[in-house]
Amino acid sequence: MDEMEEELKCPVCGSFFREPIILPCSHNICQACARNILVQTPDAESPQSSRASGSGVSDYDYLDLDKMSLYSEADSGYGSYGGFVSAPTTPCQKSPNGVRVFPPTVLQPPAQQQQHQQQQHLLPQPGSLPPIPRNSCITCPQCHRSLILDDRGLRGFPKNRVLEGVVDRYQQSKAAALKCQLCEKSPKEATAMCEQCDVFYCDPCRLRCHPPRGPLAKHRLVPPAQGRISRRTSPRKISTCTEHELENLSMYCVQCKMPVCYQCLEEGKHGTHEVKALGAMWKLHKGQLSQALTGLSDRATEAKDFLVQLRNMVQHIQENGVEFEACLVAQCDALIEALNRRKAQLLSRVNKEHEHKLKVVRDQISHCTVKLRQTTGLMEYCLEVIKENDPSGFLQISDALIRRVHMTEGQWGKGTLTPRMTSDFDLTLDSGPLLQTIHQLDFVQMKVPAAPMLQLEECCTQNNSATLSWKQPPLSTVAVEGYILELDDGNGGPFREVYVGTETICTVDGLHFNSTYKSRVKAFNASGVGQYSKTLIMQTSETGLPPCDIQSIGAVAWFTFDSASAHPDIILSNDNLTVTCNSYDDRVVMGNSAFSRGVHYWEMTIDRYDNHPDPAFGIARGDVLKDAMLGKDDKAWAMSDGGIGKGATIGVLLDFARRIVIFLINDEQQGPVAFEGLEGVYYPAISLNRNVQITLHTGLPIPDFYTPGEADPTGSVC
């Protein structure tokens, strides 16, 4: 509730709204504050006098010029008005919120002042409010839009009873404990309220003045807090039309977006407009506001989680900074005395980096906290508005609130909940330079490069040549000096280096025909060599096949489960050939080799099968969901369970020429074809939970019953 307090304060006086009115721009202002910021326009410049004088300036042009003049006054901070005699050196007042307020009264020419002073003693009731001058103009203190008042003056603006009710409830919730109304001297804290008498009692006064006998025995006593609520729920006031004060608001004009009365429809400007029942539109707009608040609530929840993430980052930066500084001091202390001066410089750099990271993250925390506070305040205010049971009052502000909610939700857009700084210090100290190079001592990169990413769409084979392409991960900031490409011998043998350099694409010639090659690449810099990329299996064509009909018939592929990409709950053993899980939920593990062409076959045996775990077997894209059953998204194609048990063998046959997948259980084919129309790059994959254990078997020949298809004539196999 505290965040909502800013929504309940007048932008002029800075206090809680008192008798708020709604300006045409949908902003609110106290009625007394509105009277204080009125500016009187000279009669000679009013639209009526302009028309009477026959000038060529239309009403529309005059209003635009009038608004421009008021904008200029608001920007300059002075309350003077062009062509109007006022004190040009008197700055306008300022409210506690920093909003400029025009002087409450307007200076008059000397002759008019003298006449006014002579008539002053004739004014009755000196405490009453003076009438609003003709041609008065009011400027919104928030958006600076201006409006010339008509003959009704401030009575032409509708009162915001919903806001007034929210303010009353808020102030009552913050009020002190309720006091007894019958104590004569110092009132004691009330302990009960009689709903029939509508009086708060302390215990002594209740026993003395409200005994539980006789006619009073039938009265209902409730706790003071409940009694306070019952007082609030008084019947709502019937809203009257600002145009026809004797008529109640009963309809809603869709075109003007405002409640209207019956007489407005009969003789007013709303006669030809579309109108709807007030109650129906009330419910409709409440639903729209509630729906808009749902999205904003999700953003607020994300913002809270993001703040927790940022605060954790502050702790990690502090811990990493302390650890890094300690290592730096230890290295510098081991050097000769000539390193001491350089050590101070290096420590200064570390501290600056440390403070910079902390400053960036703390600034983001502060910014996000303020935005979240504003969002929470708006949400609480909107929820309180929804509680109101005044349709016309609600509809007067619902459109503006809906727009504000959507606009606030848009402010939590893409990038707002992303950290602007990492918590790592990508620096380390190289203590190997000679003494004469101490003055050149500087930081070097602390980390080795990340594993490169193979660009599978650009990797292909042609006859007995293979072309591979790779790149660094998008978010990697560590510099790379070069790459090392490795291939095996095409027969499952050890890897060997075939390229070392700075290029990110390489074509290897002179490979064996009708062979399956494994390829991988890693990056290096001055700090060392990084990890390998994922292994890519590529097959050369048979001797004599045209370049775009590349296919391997009967070639086998060797691979294991990939621990790097597996879900954290996955448990691998037996050289990553046996897998189980420590979770009751389904978790996904993929093979460490990707297939894009050829015919491939592998099998899996069920070592343990308890309580119907329902594992799934198949193929998947590299970005498949790892915490759901295989095949639940559009990134995987799988067979689940199918009557298998302990000791069963599941086979998967993947044919890129025909672009199909076939499943086998205990050497028996399960249906003709499981999936068709496969294109792209796929990994062998399974999903399982803790009730099952599976062992992988690779390097198997294609089953005898299957005849591989012809190569795709379009060349897509390439």
TrEMBL record:
Database matches in SMART domains: BBC, BBOX, FN3, RING, SPRY
Highest taxon of the lineage: Eukaryota
Residue intervals of the RING-type domain: 10-47
Compartments, record wording: Cytoplasm, Cytoskeleton
Domain COS, chain residue ranges per copy: 386-444
InterPro entries for the chain: B30.2/SPRY, B30.2/SPRY_sf, Bbox_C, ConA-like_dom_sf, COS_domain, E3_ligase_FN3/SPRY, FN3_dom, FN3_sf
Keyword Acyltransferase: no
GO molecular function: zinc ion binding
Annotated B30.2/SPRY domain residues: 538-718
Alphabetically ordered keywords of this record: Coiled coil, Cytoplasm, Cytoskeleton, Metal-binding, Repeat, Ubl conjugation pathway, Zinc, Zinc-finger
Domain B box-type stretches: 175-224, 236-278
Every Fibronectin type-III domain range: 448-543
A single GO cellular-component term on record: cytoskeleton
Keyword Repeat attributed: yes
PANTHER family associated with the record: E3 UBIQUITIN-PROTEIN LIGASE TRIM36-RELATED (PTHR24099), E3 UBIQUITIN-PROTEIN LIGASE TRIM9 (PTHR24099:SF13)
Protein name stated in the entry: Putative E3 ubiquitin-protein ligase TRIM9
Annotated source species: Scophthalmus maximus (Turbot)
Lineage start: Eukaryota, Metazoa, Chordata, Craniata, Vertebrata
